[in-house]
Design a protein that fits this description.
This protein is an alpha/beta fold. The chain has 10 helices and 31 strands. The two termini are 45 Å apart.
């Protein structure tokens, strides 16, 4: 496997891109993958109509309840039921075999339903349903995967940050997973990429080229309206990767899924230029980029870059402070060396510093740690394994982040670094800012950090919990009480155990389902046995599935 460079240093006052990883080249897998969801009891099926256990806080048609009874005549109802319905407006729904009873003034729907239930009538909310499907992009964890270097990879990091939980909660609110305007200050973006179609605003280039002056200093030169990604050097595709993690077109049947799904909300701001084998950004280009992003109305700015060895950069610090004062949330990668402190601008108090987790919940070996006197990491997110647990920390890994590459680079690749962790937080922040445009930067930061799960490496982003908290925000944040879960799915071919999937974690209740994935299965008919444990409550379920000629999906209901 190819070794990773530690950093891409610049001459003079330069900045460093905080990512680099070349894809591994494992052998092609000739067998099949089975994936799906294991549903908690009641989550995947129909429950009896009753008041007990009904979730009246869930989206439902207000001012009414549903009755299972269709015949409300005096001959068919008890005296208590007749009394409860006295003066109540009702409407029969013959096609559904139900009756709508309209809630009297002065009562809540739940109170009215309880009164009806006490009289012997089964009543429930008239729930509002949304199409809560998982994205159909091949890279999404339960789908087929994307081929990189001859093997299939998926976006397992989306599961770790509970992205699906955030999307589901948005859809339950009648919202789509769109984000607020987000600027990506980077090497540019491949504007022709198939997975960025319809997502990009025109943008700007503040570093058309690098020039070396008579003193040997390399500086950005020129400005134009073409924010296309760099086409040479290790940095090529870096900005496309960052933009894709935030806003690749999602549920379009192509490529990867992103935190934000649709709409022209990604603003590419190119602050890096190239000259021969060198590339870089400067204080001037980055400061101009921050100011431009603010002027264009950006609500979130992602900076997957940094300057090692400097505690501040006065010009950039002023632009960052002005942006924060203008209610813009700035997010930066923490740095890719573990013993040199947080890079700037991540170390700036007006910027959220994002560290990277490896394939476990510990910090990746390359992720920056705060030096003495520096602030701590604000959040962590998966950044790829990249040699963690091996003698060589800067080495590609099959557990790195599946993301976009430029079209010339093959469109999709694996990368690792804090550069890959930061856009996940930026994407989550964009979702919150679109959902609650009335909330200020301080409130959004508070939601993101208060709802994060405490793990070995720091506070792990939890998109579902953050969306839930933002939707209910009323002035104070109460941390979501996480509950632990574990899942085991065994696949039997006849009497032989052919494959097993196990996963553990914590999430905000209620936990409706957990995804599983079993690789390397041959064609045949399998019996699946699932055991799901949520907060020490065990449920189990079985299903059968036939695999023939391709990957398969099978959900399992537990009881």
């Amino acid at each position: 496997m190819k070794q990773l460079p530690r950093a891409f240093a610049l001459l003079g006052c330069g900045l460093v891109l905080l990512s680099a990883c070349t894809p591994p080249s494992p052998p092609v897998d000739s067998v099949y993958t089975l994936s799906g969801k294991v549903f908690a009891p009641g989550a995947g099926g129909v429950t009896p109509l009753s008041v007990q256990g009904m979730n009246w806080s869930a989206p439902h048609v207000g001012g009414q309840v549903l009755l299972t009874a269709q015949n409300l005549s005096a001959q068919s109802l008890s005296p208590a039921a007749l009394s409860a319905l006295s003066g109540v407006r009702t409407q029969s729904l013959p096609s559904a075999g139900l009756t709508v009873a309209y809630t009297p003034a002065g009562q809540t729907d739940a109170e009215f339903a309880a009164t009806l239930a006490a009289s012997g009538l089964a009543a429930q909310p008239n729930y509002r349903y949304q199409a809560l499907s998982a994205p159909n992009d091949p890279g999404y964890p339960i789908n087929a995967g994307i081929s990189v270097g001859g093997a299939l990879y998926d976006q397992d990091y989306l599961t770790r940050i509970n992205a699906q939980g955030g999307w589901d909660k948005l859809e339950a609110l009648g919202k789509t997973p769109v984000g607020a305007l987000t600027a990506v200050l980077d090497t540019g973006v491949d504007t022709a990429h198939e997975d960025l179609a319809g997502r990009l605003l025109p943008g700007r280039d503040f570093c058309s080229s690098l020039v070396t002056d008579a003193q040997g200093n390399t500086n950005c030169s020129g400005e134009d309206s073409d924010p296309s990604d760099l086409t040479q050097g290790s940095e090529a595709g870096h900005g496309t990767s960052s933009a894709g993690l935030i806003g690749a077109a999602t549920n379009n049947g192509k490529g990867i899924a992103a935190l934000t799904w649709s709409g022209k909300t990604i603003l590419p701001v190119k602050v890096f230029g190239a000259s021969g084998a060198n590339s870089g950004a400067t204080t001037a280009s980055l400061t101009a980029g921050v100011k431009y992003a603010v002027a264009q109305g950006a609500k979130v700015i992602n900076m997957s870059l940094g300057l090692v060895g400097a505690s501040t950069d006065p010009a950039l610090s002023k632009a960052v402070a002005d942006a924060a004062a203008a209610d813009v949330l700035l997010i930066a990668a923490a740095g890719n060396t573990p013993n040199q402190g947080l890079y700037y601008p991540a170390s700036d108090p007006n910027v959220m510093a994002i560290g990277a987790l490896a394939k476990t919940d510990a910090l990746a070996c390359y992720s920056a740690r705060p030096a003495a006197g520096q602030k701590g990491l604000d959040l962590v997110a998966p950044g790829g394994n990249a040699g963690s647990g091996t003698p060589n920390c800067y080495q590609s890994s099959e557990y790195d982040i599946l993301t976009l590459a430029t079209t010339a680079q093959g469109r999709y690749t694996l990368r690792a670094g804090t550069s890959e962790a930061a856009p996940q937080v930026s994407g989550a922040a964009a979702l919150l800012r679109a959902l609650r445009p009335d909330l200020k930067v301080k409130q959004i930061r508070g939601i993101l950090t208060a709802t994060a799960e405490t793990v070995t490496g720091g506070r792990l982003l939890n998109v579902g919990a953050a969306v839930q908290a933002a939707s209910a925000y009323g002035g104070g944040i109460v941390p979501v009480p996480f509950v632990p879960y574990s899942l085991r799915v065994d696949a039997f071919l006849g009497d032989a155990l052919a494959g097993t999937a196990t996963t553990t974690g914590k999430d905000a209740p209620p936990i409706q389902s957990v995804t599983y994935r079993i690789k390397n299965l041959v064609a045949g008919t399998y019996t699946l046995k699932a055991t799901l444990t949520v907060d020490n409550v065990i449920s189990s379920g079985e299903a059968t599935v036939t695999i023939s000629g391709g990957d398969a999906v099978r959900n399992i209901q537990t009881r």
